[in-house]
Design a protein that fits this description.
homodimer, mainly alpha, two-stranded antiparallel sheet, elongated, DNA-binding
Chain lengths: 245, 245
DNA sequence: CAAGTGAATTTGTATGATAAATGGGAGGCC
DNA sequence: GGCCTCCCATTTATCATACAAATTCACTTG
C-alpha cells in the first residue's frame, strides 16, 4: 500500500523551464483568483496538495510560502492555510496580476486597468517632467524612435511599453515602480484588442510625442494634460473595439 | 568533526511568535533594501545562509522563496540568488515597504510617500464619490466619527487609517487595494512626526469631513479637490515638523 | 458545570540524499 | 592558434523521513 516510487520527473504537466513549486503556486493562485477558494476559506492541507500534484511536501510548502508572500494566504499550525481578504492581495504583483487577468472577464479587466492608469499616469508624467535626468530623456526619446520605426506587432507593443516605463523611471520615485507590471499587462492586452488600429496609430504616435516634448521641456502641467489626452484616446479605442465585438 | 546536534530551538534571536523562515527573510530583505546587497550582485548560497543563522537549509529556502515572490531576488541553479533590479521590487508589499522604511532616511521616506499619496488619493476620492455603496458610506461615516471621538494617540491614528481605507474600499477597484499598506505606513509615521498637532487637528477633521461630504453627495470633482486640500495641508504639517527638528 | 488537561492534527524545522541546470574549463579537431 | 564539444564542479531543485511546535477540541476531573 506504500506507494514508494523512485522520483518521477515532471509530474505536473507542461514541459520544462518552469520550476515545480512555481507550477503549484500558479495552479493554486489561479484557483484563488478565480474564486474557487474564497477569502476566509480553508485550503486543503499540504499533504493533500502533494497528493493532488504528485509532488513532495517540500515543493508544496515552497509554493505556499510564495503565495503567502504575495498576500494571498496565511498559514497557521493545526489550522491550515486560509485565503486572506482581497484587500491584502498584492494585485500589482506580476504573477497575481496575471492570474487575475486569466480569471477576469477581458473587458472588465481592461476597464479597471485603464481606470487605474487614468489615475496614476498623469501624475507620473507630471513628476517625470519635474525630475527627469538627461539619461532618462535619452531613454524616452529612444523608446519614441522605436515606436516610429516599429513594423511588427511585437515591436509596436514593446516600444510602447518601453516608452511608458521610461516615463515611470523618469518620475524617480521608487514607490511608483510597481506600476510597471500593470502597464505591461495592459498594453499587451490592449494591442491584442485592436489589431487593425492603423488609423489610430498615427494619432497615438502624436500623443506620445506630445508627452515626450512636455517632459523634455520640463513642463509638468503640459505633461499631465498630454498624458490625459493619450489615456482618453486609449479609452476610445477600447470602446470601439468592444462595440465591434 | 561532524556537528550533529539535535535540533536547537530559536537559533536566530528575538523571542517567539515569528517563524524562523520569516526572520531569515526579514534579515536578508532588510540588508537588500539597506543596500548591503545591490541589484545584480550575488547572494551567499543557501548553505552559507544556513550557517550564518544556524538554521536548516529548509528554512533558508523558504525565506528565499518568499523574497523571490516579492520580486527582490531571482535564483538559478549553479549560479545562485541574484538581487533583482529595483524596478522589479514590490515596494508596495507590506514587508518590503517596512524594510524600506527602516533603511531609508525618515524625511526622505515621508516625502516620497506623500508624493505618492498626492498622485493617487485624489483619484481614489473621485472614484469613491462615483461608486460608493451605502454600506461603504456607513463605514466612511463611522471612521469619521471615530476621528472625532479619538482621545489617545493610537485611536487617532487608527481612525484616520480607517477613514482612508474606507475611501479606498469605496473606490471599488481591486487594483488600488495595495495602496492600503502605504497609507498605513505613512499615517503611522506622520502622526509620530507631529505629536503636538492639536491646533492642526481641528483643521484636519474639517478637511476629512469635506471629503466625506463630497463622496456621500456623489460629487467626484469636489471629492478630488477636498482630498487635494487635505494632502496639501499634510505637506505643510510635515514641513513644519521637519523645520522644527 | 467549569476549568484544565491531554490527544490529534497541521504546519514548522531539520537532515540527508539525489536530480537537474548551467557555467567554465579541459581537451580534441580543424 | 582558434573554435567547438564534452565533461565536471557547483548550486539550486526536489524528494523522503522524522520530529518539534502550535493550536484546536474533546474529555476528564474537581
Amino acid at each position: 500500500m506504500n506507494g514508494r516510487k523512485v522520483q518521477k520527473r515532471r509530474p505536473i504537466g507542461k514541459s520544462s523551464g518552469v520550476k515545480l513549486h512555481a507550477e503549484v503556486a500558479r495552479n493554486i493562485g489561479e484557483r484563488i483568483l478565480g474564486g474557487e477558494f474564497k477569502p476566509g476559506s480553508l485550503l486543503p492541507n499540504e499533504a493533500e496538495w502533494g497528493a493532488t500534484f504528485a509532488v513532495s511536501r517540500t515543493a508544496v510548502r515552497e509554493a505556499i510560502k510564495a503565495l503567502s508572500a504575495k498576500g494571498l494566504i496565511a498559514s497557521r499550525p493545526k489550522v491550515g492555510s486560509r485565503v486572506e481578504p482581497r484587500s491584502r492581495w498584492n494585485l500589482l504583483d506580476r504573477d497575481v496580476l496575471s492570474w487575475h487577468r486569466s480569471a477576469t472577464d477581458r473587458k472588465a479587466f481592461l476597464a479597471s486597468t485603464q481606470e487605474f492608469r487614468r489615475i496614476v499616469e498623469p501624475g507620473i508624467a507630471e513628476l517625470a517632467a519635474r525630475r527627469r535626468t538627461t539619461a532618462q530623456i535619452d531613454q524616452l526619446v529612444a523608446a519614441l524612435e522605436g515606436m516610429k520605426r516599429a513594423k511588427t506587432h511585437e515591436e509596436t507593443v514593446s516600444s510602447d511599453v518601453a516608452f511608458h516605463e521610461a516615463l515611470l523611471a523618469a518620475s524617480n520615485n521608487d514607490l511608483l515602480m510597481p506600476f510597471g507590471v500593470l502597464i505591461e499587462e495592459t498594453l499587451g492586452n490592449l494591442f491584442d484588442f485592436t489589431t487593425q488600429r492603423n488609423k489610430h496609430y498615427k494619432l497615438a504616435l502624436k500623443l506620445h510625442e506630445n508627452i515626450a516634448k512636455a517632459v523634455i521641456a520640463g513642463d509638468p502641467e503640459g505633461a499631465r494634460k498630454a498624458m490625459l489626452a493619450l489615456i482618453g484616446d486609449t479609452d476610445m479605442v477600447i470602446a470601439v473595439a468592444s462595440k465591434g465585438k
